[in-house]
Amino acid sequence: MRRTNLTTATVLCAAVLLGACTSDETNAFDRDRFNTMLEQGRVSENDLTGVIERLAKGCMEDRGFTVHPLKMEAPPTATAVPAANSNIEVVMRARYMYQTDTLDESGYGASPFEDLGFTPGGSDSPFADDPFSELPDEEQLEYWLAYDGSYLGNGYPDAQPPEGSYETVAVDGREYQYPNSGCYAEIQDEVFEGDIHGYLTVAHWATEGMGYVGYGEFHDHSDVAVALDDWSVCMSDNGYPDLADPTDAIQLARDLYRDADVFGPVDEGFEDLKQQEIVIAQTDYGCNVEAELDERQVEIFWSILEPYVVEHEAEIYAWKDLTDQALERAQAMLAS
Q1: 280: exposed, middle or buried (C-beta count within 10 Å: 0-12, 13-18, 19+)?
Q2: Which stretch is the leader sequence (predicted)?
Q3: How far apart are CA 330 and CA 145, in angstroms?
C-alpha cells in the first residue's frame, strides 16, 4: 500500500477549484449548499463506519472468531437525539429538534422506554443476550487484539491500550488515534488506500474543528444568552421557572418518570405523566416560537461559523469527497 498524501492533496486541489467555480460573482456564502453537502457527508461517514465494521467482522470470522461483541447503539425505536442528526444546526443546538408531528401525542418521547427504545432491564432489550460477555476474559482480550490491537484498551482491566497499538495524527492541537494492527486496521488501510493519516487531517476541519467553533463560540455568544433569557421568561410566565434552555425542559420531563419510578406504558401512572410531559413540550415549543429562539440562534450560529467555513472550505469539501470515495471502495469490497 502506498503511504503518501497524494490522494488527499489531489482532492484538496479539486476542492479549491470546485469552490472557485461554484462561487457567485459576489462570493456570497451559500449556506444551503454548504449545509446540504455537510449533511450528505455525515450520512456517508456514518455509512462508511458501518461498512468497515462489517468488513472487519468478516475478517475476524475468517480467522476463527465466531462470537462478536454487541454494538452499543440505540435501537431505531429510541427517541432521536441531536448528536445523531445530520443537520449541523441541530447537532450544535443552534436549532432545537422538536418532533412537531408527534408533539401533541407524545411530547418529547422522554419516558425511559421511549428514550432507550426498550424496557430497562426487560426481555426486549437488545443487550439482554450477549454471548461475548460470557466468554472468559482471556478470550475477550484475544478477540480485541485480533480485531484492532485493542488500541482502545478493550479487554484490559484498566482499559489502557498496549503500547504501540495505535498511530497518532495531530491536527491544530488535537490528537486522533487509529489502530495499526488487527482486522479493523487492515480494512481501514485498504479502504483509505494507505492514507488514513491524510483523511483524518482533513476530517478534523469538518468534525471536531468545526465543533469547537460552531458549539463553543456560539454558546458563549452574548446574543445567544439574550435569546435564551427571552425563552426562559416565557417558560416562567407559563409555570416553568428556573429553566435555562430547552434542554432543561426536556430534562424536567424525564425527571417526571424517574422521580415516580415509572418507565413505560405498562406502568401505573404513565398516562398522567405523559400528559404532563406533553404540556411541558407544547409550552417549550410555543415559547421557542414566541421568543423566535431558533431563528435568532441560527443567524448567530452562521455569523460565527461562516468565516471558519470560508477559511477551511477546501479541507471540508475534501473530507466529503474522500469519504464518498472510501465508502464506494468499502461497498465494493463488501460486494466482492
Answers
A1: buried
A2: 1-28
A3: 23
Per-residue pLDDT of the chain (336 residues; tens, 9 = 90+): 333 333 454 445 444 444 433 444 446 789 999 999 999 999 999 999 999 999 999 999 999 999 999 987 888 888 988 888 888 999 999 999 998 999 999 999 999 999 999 877 777 788 878 899 999 999 999 999 999 999 988 988 888 888 889 999 999 999 999 999 999 999 999 999 999 999 999 999 999 999 999 888 999 999 999 999 999 999 999 999 999 999 999 999 999 999 999 999 999 999 999 999 999 999 999 999 999 999 999 999 999 999 999 999 999 999 999 999 999 999 999 999
Residue 285 contacts residue 98 (beta carbons within 8 Å)? yes
CA nearest 202: which of 71, 324, 58? 324
- Residue corresponding to grid cell 475468517: 62
Residues 6+ apart with CB under 8 A from 294: 94, 95, 96, 288
- CB neighbour list of residue 265: distance below 8 Å, 6 or more residues apart: 113
**What is the rounded distance in angstroms from the CA atom of residue 227 to the CA atom of residue 100?**
21
Residue with cell 460573482: 25
Residue 219 neighbours by CB under 8 Å, 6+ apart: 93
Cell of 103: 408533539
Nearest to 183 by CA among 216, 150, 152: 150
Q: Tell me how crowded residue 210 is: count the other CB atoms within 10 A of its CB.
A: 20
> How far, in Å, CA of 230 to CA of 218, rounded?
17
Residue that has been written with the C-alpha cell 469552490 in this structure: 19
